[in-house]
Amino acid sequence: MSPKSEHNPLDKLSLLDCSRKEDVLGAIKGGLSNCLFETNLHLTVPGLKSKTRGKVRDVYDGGKYLVLVTTDRHSAFDRVLASLPFKGQILNETSLWWFDRTIHITPNAFVFVVDKNVMIAKKCSLFSVEFVVRGYVTGSTDTSLWTIYNKGVRNYCGNALPDGLVKNQKLQKNIITPTTKPEDDDVHVTTREIIKLGLMTEAEYDEASTKALSLFQLGQHVSLEHGLILVDTKYEFGKRSDGSILLVDGALLVCSIAPML
Question: Per UniProt, which keywords does this protein have (predicted)?
């Protein structure tokens, strides 16, 4: 028995022209089995030394460069939950779009694309810090800004928050609530703790945080042009052997941002 119409997202296709509806439904159903969940290129491609499996990406060591395969794995709450057809392709192509449009703010690790799901990237040492940038007091997870604020916290990751804020309210200015990247759950930290732990120097943090805020501001502007409000997202940076800091992940991907309609 089919789900009731009010709970079936495919029923929204009734808004389409009937002649197109069957084609769209057929394409969707045909794609359900077309998920790239796992890759093992290091077993078949000469020159690839090893594989590192992330929640979404499979990363291969190609010597001078890295081979990044964006799979269709879908993660939330720090674990893989399912797979979505063509998600990897969308994420990969979205990354390329943003890398191209933010090069004036920061250099990035992108070199070129060899497949819709595969990107060649420069090697660099990743900072074990995620730069979570927030523009609104919102969210429902344990680490969301609204959840923390609603519990009475008024200093979060070194950011002083005034009394009287309400859910979904815009902050007076965008803030960064950085997290470390252990194998398990992310841990929120302050700038001072990041430096004390040796995760970044003060100069490195200042440069990366400035870039993160500038990237977020541009993202907010582009979102508004398309009728959206960029609520929060995260960025990751790495350092090259010459000391330059590159954007390596989080270029406003649909899996890492929270928009408001």
Answer: ATP-binding, Ligase, Nucleotide-binding, Purine biosynthesis
